[in-house]
Amino acid sequence: MIVLQSSALTAHILPRGATLAGLWLKGHPRSLVLGFADQLAFESAAFYAGALVGPVANRVSGGQIRIGGKTFQMPRNEHPNCLHSGDGGLNELIWDVSDQTLASVTLTLELPDCANGLPGTRKISATYALTELDTLSLTITALSDCDTPMNVAHHPYWTLDCSQDISGHFLQVNATDFLPVNEQMIPTGQIMPVARSKYDFRAACPVPVDQALDANLCISSIPSDVPQDVAVLKGSDGITLHIASTEPGLQVYNGSGLPTDGPTALPGQRIQPFAGIALEPQGWPDAPNHPHFPSVMLPRDGAYRQETHYRITKD
């Protein structure tokens, strides 16, 4: 376990999956993200808690992507589609620690050509860093020797108070549109206004725990060079999470499918439906199969860079 420390925050990082295994705010008794008491539980957990997912996060229709006139077949782990790049995705791999200080760690990984069914030898780096602004930053970079899709997402489940579910949380997201999905959770290709939908979080409102949320909210039509304000989540104890990111999408999943018989959680937590909310900055899902979506293609010898800041405040 890698422990990062600042004056207000403590983060636990696991090399497996470059996982944020816990995040504590000084004076608050519980981790602000769901985690497990036993490190081995992260290996058996099926819901990606705290891990980096990819190289192509979210769902890909049929697991198929066309690049340069050739079709590449990804693993179909959510039949008949691919979710988070299937078996052998970033969340299952052991990353190397290339640099570490008291408040930061850089982990690196190399994916060989054809790993996850995709072309290119891909070198990926992830740096977690705590700052004195009560912020956890995550910077992800990648290089490839072939044209290849690259859309990495961070998948923590946030729980900002001492309740057993997120019913006391309020969410605000800077998005006017979202992507509707079909019965297999694949985007239909439409871009719909959030107005009069269950994804209307333009103003802060309670996170529902009586229905499932699992969709991409459209932050912008292109990635940003610098992090932009994306979302604000506030718990009933006065702790607030401010998310800023370079990514054009935010997957909002309120944990409706979390198991009731999962591994033993960190002290004070319980793994159950709606125990945490995943807010995942990323490119739009299934983008390679929708030419009007923002591209997630990383060109040969090009540079991929994603930066997300998680700032914590308390009333």
Give a summary of the structure in a few sentences:
This protein has one helix at residues 41-44, and strands at 2-5, 9-14, 19-25, 52-53, 59-60, 64-67, 70-73, 82-83, 96-100, 104-111, 122-131, 135-144, 148-149, 153-154, 157-158, 170-173, 177-178, 192-193, 205-206, 214-218, 228-234, 239-245, 249-253, 277-282, 297-298, 303-314. The protein is mainly β and 315 residues long.
Protein model, in words:
The longest helix is centred in the N-terminal third of the chain and has 4 residues, at 41-44. The strands form seven sheets. This protein has a nine-stranded antiparallel sheet with strand order 9-10-11-12-26-22-21-16-19, with no helix packed on it. Strands 15-24-23-20-17-18 form a six-stranded antiparallel sheet, with no helix packed on it. The protein has one helix at 41-44, and strands spanning 2-5, 9-14, 19-25, 52-53, 59-60, 64-67, 70-73, 82-83, 96-100, 104-111, 122-131, 135-144, 148-149, 153-154, 157-158, 170-173, 177-178, 192-193, 205-206, 214-218, 228-234, 239-245, 249-253, 277-282, 297-298, 303-314. It is 1% helix and 39% strand. The chain has one helix and 26 strands. With 315 residues, the protein is mainly beta.
- The assigned structural class equals mainly beta
Strand portion, in percent?
Answer: 35-45%
**Residue share in helices?**
under 10%
The general outline is globular
End-to-end gap: 31 Å
According to DSSP, the number of beta strands is 26
User: From N to C, what is the helix and strand string?
Assistant: EEEHEEEEEEEEEEEEEEEEEEEEEEE
Radius of gyration, taken over Cα atoms and rounded to an integer in Å = 18 Å
- Tally of alpha and pi helices: 1
Question: Going across the major beta sheet, what is the strand order?
Answer: 9-10-11-12-26-22-21-16-19
Unreliable residue stretches: none
Described by its quaternary structure, the protein is single chain
